[in-house]
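Can you give me the bound-state structure? Components:
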Amino acid sequence: MPGRYKSSSVTLKTIAQAAGLDVSTVSRVLSGTPDEVSRAASPATAAAVRDWAQRLGYHPNPHAKSLRTARSNLIGVLVPRLSDMVLATIYEGVEDAGARNGLATFVMNTYDRPAEQRARIDLALSRHVDGLILGDAHRDAVVLDEVAARGVPFVLVSRYASKYPSVTCDDYLGGSLVAEHFLDLGHVKVGVVAGESFASTGVDRSSGFVDTYRKAGIEVLTVNSAFDARGGHEAAEYLIKQAPNLTAIFAVNDFAAIGVLGAVRDAGLRPGRDIAVAGYNDTQLAAELPLPLTSVRSPLHTMGTRALELLVSVLRGQNPSSERLAPELVIRESTLLHVRNS
Amino acid sequence: MPGRYKSSSVTLKTIAQAAGLDVSTVSRVLSGTPDEVSRAASPATAAAVRDWAQRLGYHPNPHAKSLRTARSNLIGVLVPRLSDMVLATIYEGVEDAGARNGLATFVMNTYDRPAEQRARIDLALSRHVDGLILGDAHRDAVVLDEVAARGVPFVLVSRYASKYPSVTCDDYLGGSLVAEHFLDLGHVKVGVVAGESFASTGVDRSSGFVDTYRKAGIEVLTVNSAFDARGGHEAAEYLIKQAPNLTAIFAVNDFAAIGVLGAVRDAGLRPGRDIAVAGYNDTQLAAELPLPLTSVRSPLHTMGTRALELLVSVLRGQNPSSERLAPELVIRESTLLHVRNS
DNA sequence: ACGATTGTCCCAAACGTTTGGGTATGGTTA
DNA sequence: TAACCATACCCAAACGTTTGGGACAATCGT
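Here's the bound-state model for the whole set.
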């Protein structure tokens, strides 16, 4: 009865009966390699089968398929927080690439808490994922070592750790780009809002920055922080109290940078004018802020897609090489007003 | 061989053999109702089974279970964009509640494009989801009507449409709260950045606002926009050009509001001081902006959890009633400076 | 002391696939 | 014309569950 297909209860058997064939033949036609199908049925029969499948609206039952083949075509993704736009954008990339590769994906938050990481990994494994993409790796790779010991295929994204395959941005370079920019502008009293010490992103961005300044013979004030606006706010408050003569602050994350802007203003200083501010990731927001924010653009979406593809190659058994994508400095007013002014 | 469990190939049969029982008994003990288990095995046997399951690290194979029961315990979630923090936060709520209810969830972007919506819904159905949560409903419920016609259980979240079950924020009320606030402050020349006309959120927020002003005998300038910073920026540019004497703008979304702040500044005006600005959703960012943003707090996470729970009740066959959660106005400097100044 | 009841468990079919084997039929080859 | 070989199929088992229906004791009521 065409025109009324509820929950797609048309199976191989339905088609087999319609076409007067065996389910095995139908199966081979519908999901075999070109080679298999030619061995399984005559061209005419194959066409008929495909026609029936089309007409009946056949969709293979993924559970039956997974049960039989012991492959779920399912990938679990762990992130610190999905409501962090950075991770959400990366996940969009993962999801996109997954769809293109016939892999379903799902995300879970771990809030950067090892206990949650373990719990979520167990959950993913109980769903029989084929592999994991971890966006929440800590530098001490203890949870990762556990996963690896269990033989679960996985790749890292955004952050790297130990020598596990990863797709990251060249954060060290990104940090040094900001430092060079600041040096060009003549800033000698500068601070870094360095993010969390367990994340390679924050660490690399800040050490790229610090090292570059050090090469110029200048020491930099550094303070760790959460990766969000509040974290940036608090960190900047601290920096300004420690060194009231600061003229520039690099926050390793756009949201932290926004917090920095707030703290600067709260200190009675003019963001951008009295204290230059730069962020990282070049979020949508950066360009649209009342004070457009200088930021390092990192290819978030691409990182996601490349991570998925890297995982695919791991699943194929190829031994994978980590990838480090290039960042790009985007200069905006938040670091330009000071110069004009001095 | 304990200590070496790779991909959890311990099945009911493994346990049955270990305990010297039949798989059916083990199954009933492990996943029957208390009633069933007591009918299936003696307390001692049941304990032994559970003990073996524990010791062997048994995890039921979800594919086998789904195949057998024709229920996947899988929920598909559609959102316009996951990198929109608002939707990401709602999804976090969905995911949380899903985990609590033994339901797996996954999200997909539709970019508010009907073609994508249909494609993603098909994709979800081909994964045999038990139900859908749609965060991207359009007011003309044409895609929704199609889904309903196919008999797929679904609920809406964030936006409502037609008379489909939904969990939303009382956006009309939210808009009117802002209007009352603006009226209190004495603003008579005001504009609204109204969001997309196909989304109930934008429409309700702006009409709540407009109606309240109209009751006070004041007409309001309104312009539609995208829900992001750039959209807010462009819309505010337009408003300011149309009515240079504007003293307050309500943007139906925090990100749009940030764009508005930028546009105000670009127009050579002082945000907050020359033009008061209010947003919606009370995003993390709102409080931390250099100019803290007055915003309407909507219970995003809760909306997500309630939506999942509503879907659960739909799946149980109970006929569900939509839920409208209360918003709350959070007043900050972006609407306060003007007053002090006048 | 007999049938009825209960407690404890097992058997077997089914869900929709995939896949390693068949087995007819017809056409070539020697 | 017998042996052979493709071609075009089909059979049946298996993946790990769930679930309706037994089966076999021991216990009970009378």
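A couple of observations. Residues 1-7 of chain B have pLDDT under 50 and may be disordered. The longest strand of chain B covers residues 74-79.
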